[in-house]
Structures are given as C-alpha cells and as structure tokens.
Amino acid sequence: MTPRALTAACVALAGLVAARPAAAHPLDIGYLRIRADGAALSITLDIHVNAAARLLGRDPGAPGARALEGSAAELADATFRGAPITTRLGPCRWTTASAAVVDQTATLTGGAECPSSIDALHWAFPFVREARLSPTFQLLVKAQLGGEDRVAIVDRVRPSLELAATPDLDFASFVMTGVEHIGAAPGQWHSAEGWKLPDGIDHILFLLALMLAGGTLFQILGIVSGFTLGHSITLALSALHIARPPASVIEPLIALSIALVAAEALAGRFQRQRWKVAAFFGLIHGFGFAGALNQLELSTSDLASALLGYNLGVELGQIAIVLATAPALLTLHRHRQLRPLARALAALIFIAGVYWFFQRLG
Questions:
Q1: Side-chain half-sphere of 157: how many Cα atoms within 13 Å?
Q2: CB distance 230 to 280 below 8 Å
Q3: Per-residue pLDDT tens over the stretch 193-252
Q4: Strand locations in the chain, DSSP E?
Q5: What's the rounded Cα separation, in Å, for the pair 276 and 296?
Q6: What gap in Å lies between CA 79 and CA 87, rounded to an integer?
Q7: pLDDT tens digit string along 117-139?
C-alpha cells in the first residue's frame, strides 16, 4: 500500500468514525426463559424498555412504565407471540400475557397450552429481524423440557428454535456470538441500505488503539492474546460465581478503557508489557457478556462451556481484525511522515471513548 493510498484510507476511516460516534455496542440482548409443566408452557421475556418501545412503533424514552404495562398483549404479539409454538402433535394455544417494568427492563410473562406433554418444540421469532431493532439484537434462551435445561441463542442468523428434552448446549452458536460481538462477522458491515459500521465498533476501536502505539507483528499478536487472557479469567470468575458486576458499571468502564488506551497511543508511548494492559481491560470487556449469561442461571458446567465458546469466538474475531489492519498500522509507524495520521486516528478513538463513557453513564 502506497503512502497516498494509506492516507486516503485513514481519512475515510476517520470520517466513518466521526460520522457515527454513537454506534457503540452495549449489550443489546434479551433473555427468554421457558418452563414446561406437562402440556403447559410458562414464558418470561426480558428486554430493554427502548427495544420494547421500538417494537410498539413508539419513540424510545417516550412511553413510561404504565404505558408499556398497559400494552402487554400488544407487546407480546410483537415479540414471543409473533409465531405459534408447535409440538409433535400440533400448535400450542397462547393464553394471557402481562408486563412489568423495573428500571430499564420490560418483563413480559405469558403462557401457552399445548396438545400434550412437551418433549420437543419448534418456535420462530420473526421480531428479531425487525428493522426497528439493532442488527445485533440477540435472545439468550434457557428452556426446561422434560426436567432438562436447554440453552440456545436466537438472532437474525438463527431466528427460530428447535428444542428437545435431551440437553445439548450449542457451543458453535456461542463461538459465532463471540465473533459477532467483536464486530468481525462480515454480515455486520452491511445492511439493506448498504455498507455500515458494525455495532461492535467500540471493541474494534479498542483493539486498534492498543495497536496504534506501535510494535512488531509478534508484539501485536501478544496484545491480542493478552486481551483473550482477560476474557478467560472472566470465564473462571463467572463460572465459579465469584464476581458478577452489573452492566451499569461494566459498560461505562469499557468505554473508558477505549479512551485510556487511545490517550496512551496519542502520546506515542509504547510499552513492551502492553499485553498486560490488554489483559486487564480484556477482563472488563469479558464481564459484559458473562453478566448477560448469568441472567440465564446456567449450571456451572454449562456457563463455562458457553463462555469458552464465546471467548474462542472473540479470539478468532480479533485475529481477523489484526490480519486486516496490521499491514496498514505497521506502515504508519514505518514511515515517519505518516505518524501524524496514527496520532490523528488515536485522537478520534479517544473522543469516541469519552463520548460513549458519558453516554453510558446516562
């Protein structure tokens, strides 16, 4: 890549970052719990109040708790009652639904009566593909069928459930979730309207800020491994129920970590022990998804397996990002006349991190 082409690429990237400063990727996740008792199903869905408002076609932040609670049936039809549950003997019949709002979470409860005792079911969720929701919206599902727990993920790529009483944790789905969470899945870079920045852009900018301070390719790969090490420590802490910090604390800290590493890169300082910095902040970033899984109240073994798959996906996503960006970043540091571009990019990342920090505090 020539210096002129590299300059153009950096200017384009700076424009994209500046154009979408609010494209941070806080956890846009819903929690669905299903319990079968004979032929009856009880269902609980937790989603953010803003997502609930969008699904009702209302302005996020405008409807209060009473408005959402009074629209329980409408919200249930827009979410889990959007398609029937079917069993081996036919479809189930929906019963009543109710809603409650606590802080920023809307909790929907409902039920269904099925033709016979439930040992397997099929259930589609058209609403996860709604344009009004974030493209990275996911449902973490925990189902109890036949006395056994099942765990699954529903999103735009996997918009339906096929569950049987035999437990089978979908490890591959959690690996893909890790890739998507870091913003490395190709499908996250475009939509029906064309190219776009992924909602995981905050994690990508954090990784770029770590790399912008310089170093060899080997040192950069060490930084990536350090970040994953932090996620692995989070796995152990979460699986053993030792630490469960709330998302209201973790999400602003993630944004602050972006600003701090970008400030260090802006100052032009390179530390040979930079992988330790990456490991520390990786621990914070990892708590985000670990906290989401804890909402499902998985067994220790299932939680460890899910987090292991997620961390593997994060590592694969980071390697893809490094392979895609390292040549350009190494060129920035190899040519003295291009180093101001590296610092300009670090400054933009710093501004984005500070903005997200105050946004998430609110």
A1: 14
A2: yes
A3: 667 677 678 878 888 888 887 667 777 778 878 887 887 787 677 666 677 677 677 788
A4: 29-37, 40-48, 85-87, 90-91, 93-102, 105-113, 120-124, 138-145, 148-154, 160-164, 190-191, 194-195
A5: 31
A6: 19
A7: 777 888 889 888 887 887 778 88
Instruction: Give the amino acid at 328.
Output: A
Contacts of residues 266-273 at CB distance under 8 Å and 24 or more positions apart, as own/partner, are: 266/343, 266/346, 266/347, 266/350, 268/213, 268/339, 268/343, 269/213, 270/213, 270/214, 270/215, 271/213, 272/219
Instruction: In whole angstroms, give the CA distance from residue 219 to residue 202.
Output: 22
- Find where tokens 């998507």 sit: 180
Give residue for tokens 């571009």. Answer: 341
The overall average pLDDT reported for the chain is 77
CA-based angle 344:349:350, to the nearest 5? 95
CA distance 285 to 262: 16
The string of DSSP letters for 31-68 reads: EEEEEEETTEEEEEEEEEHHHHHHHTT--TTSS-HHHH
The CA distance from 64 to 120, in Å, is: 38
Structure tokens at 54: 């969008």
Q: Per-residue pLDDT averaged across 251-256, rounded?
A: 85
CB-count exposure of residue 267 (10 Å: 0-12, 13-18, 19+): exposed
One-letter amino acid for residue 10 of the chain: C
Q: Could you state, in order of their start, the residue ranges of all structural domains in the chain?
A: 3-25+195-361, 29-133
Q: Judge if pTM exceeds 0.90.
A: no
3-class SS of residue 275 = helix
Give the whole-angstrom CA distance, residue 140 versus residue 156.
Answer: 13
Residue 308: phi and psi, rounded to 5, are -65, -45
Contacts of 217 (CB under 8 A, 6+ apart): 326, 330
Give the integer Cα–Cα distance in Å for 208 and 189: 17
Do residues 103 and 132 touch, judged by C-beta distance below 8 A?
A: no
Q: Which amino acid is at 61?
A: G
* Structural element, H or E, at residue 222: helix 217-239
Helix, strand and coil in the chain, % to nearest 5: 55, 20, 25
